[in-house]
């Protein structure tokens, strides 16, 4: 797999996903970290906070000798991730499972939609 898209949002599950991705992928692969900020997020300075998270995750991959890019988008996360992955010919999408514990038999909303709609292979990390 040459091009890998990894969802990042700064949560512990997201960090775990980055670590697993870094362990599994070939160092010659190109990794793109993606964060999608929904319109529902009204937090001040969200873009600055997300940039710091992205920089930290990117440095993690760089220390392992993995080429990494960063993407911040606004909109519906699953839709943006699927469209971005298709438009940029990614081979694999890696996301954290953020399921609601009350619905423990289901995937989280974004990961479930990406699994169902992406044209690429999708890996969901629990």
UniProtKB/TrEMBL annotation:
This is Nucleotide-binding universal stress protein, UspA family. Residues 1-126 form the UspA domain. Pfam families: Usp. The lineage of its organism: Bacteria, Bacillati, Bacillota, Clostridia, Halanaerobiales. Gene3D superfamilies: HUPs. InterPro entries: Rossmann-like_a/b/a_fold (IPR014729), Universal_stress_UspA (IPR006015), UspA (IPR006016). Belongs to the universal stress protein A family.
């Amino acid at each position: 797999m040459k091009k890998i898209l990894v969802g990042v949002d700064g949560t512990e599950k997201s960090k775990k996903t980055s670590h697993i991705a870094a362990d599994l992928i070939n160092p010659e692969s190109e990794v793109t970290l993606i964060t999608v900020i929904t319109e529902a997020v009204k937090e001040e300075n969200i873009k600055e906070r997300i940039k710091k998270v992205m920089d930290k995750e990117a440095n993690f991959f760089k220390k392992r000798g993995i080429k990494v890019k960063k993407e911040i988008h606004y909109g519906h996360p699953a839709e943006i991730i699927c469209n971005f992955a298709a438009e940029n010919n990614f081979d694999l999408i890696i996301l954290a499972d953020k399921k609601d514990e009350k619905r423990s038999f289901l995937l989280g909303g974004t990961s479930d939609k990406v699994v169902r709609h992406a044209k690429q292979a999708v890996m969901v990390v629990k």
